Amino acid sequence: MSRTPPLLLTGARLLDPESGTATPGSWLLVEEGRIAARGTGAAPVREDAETVDLGEATLMPGLIDAHVHATAFSADLGAAADQSASYVTAWAATSLSAMLGRGFTTVRDVGGADWGLALAVEEGLIDGPRLAFGGKALSQTGGHGDFRPRGRHGSGGDGCCPGAGLVCDGAVEFRRAAREQLRTGAHHVKVMLSGGVASPTDRIDSTQSSEDELRAVVEEAEAANRYVTGHAYTARAVNRGLRLGVRCIEHGNLIDESSVELFREHDAFLVPTLVTYHELSRKGPRYGLPPESQAKVDTVLHRGLEALRMAHEGGVRIAFGTDLLGGMQEHQSNEFAIRGQVQPADAVIRSATSGAAELLGFAGEVGTLQEGARADLLVVDGDPLTDLALLAEPERGVRAVVTAGTVRRGRLGA
């Protein structure tokens, strides 16, 4: 097998997400898919390297979306249960490829993707970002992962499109289900802590999964050196999950100051997903969102920004997520613009790079320009620290996407 020559990128503005600074007149050396060295001023002379002058473009880590559903081809998750697994996989491949094109070099799927999809990406069968998966999300009967219409009875089964959810009842079933996800190599286990928008029979303000059920899942995840992430909206549901050992909360639109204190106390993460409510409000019915779900959107839509502001000002660890379904996934990058209304650009970028990497357990591996990290990189025309729209509009701002030192989209040179 031929050895890939080193890649030396010069004339770069290196964006360091940890410090929130950008250093012009810099260079970065990639060897064997990893960052070998970096510096400012004159670049080292490497006759064995391919050398590219970036023309003072920004060089930054590839982006991380910590809340995607790669297999969710429709907003009607109940109807998706009847679709062919082959079709779902083909749709997921298209979805993941588009995410890579927007600059996302790592994504975390929190309900839908399984070990086979992750392996297909790793082996190059699917052209997409590195995929951290959780397998099936665990839900009680009648919970957010149970998508049966009110009149359908019997077992909840998988409850959703292939691989997305599993209905469980009782600590024994939750424990067995958690072990099954972990057996397949899941990076995390997801549980439903409250009602949700896309599920047909639960209330947003409900709490879900008993304390014994949640303790069983947390215990199994910790035993496997993994973590539990929980879907929750209200402060009551969020606080309950945090006290029981859930390490990450998805959404959290209806949190309060007591929640902020608990996030800090438990060193837990929050993953807001604001863009999905904007798009569900505008286009949900067009992409299959049932009427009973559409009626729930306004409940969480208008509180999301205030919850993000509260969490940011309170020092909560925040990661970037989008949670878009079906054709609405094309608006993934708009999350940057929405968050930029209440957070400074450096904080938003950190949430989509080094901050998200910490949540996923990939700190020092991705989301950073540290030496030794995987060379997942973006070349951006301009400075996202002063113009966050460059990431919100990747077709305008992102010149090239690089994974493990290989150009996957665009071009390096000006």
TrEMBL record:
Domain of life: Bacteria
Stored SUPFAM superfamilies: Composite domain of metallo-dependent hydrolases, Metallo-dependent hydrolases
Annotated ranges, domain Amidohydrolase-related: 58-406
Residue ranges the record marks as coiled coil: none
Pfam families assigned: Amidohydro_1 (PF01979)
Stated name of the protein: Amidohydrolase family protein
Originating species: Nocardiopsis coralli
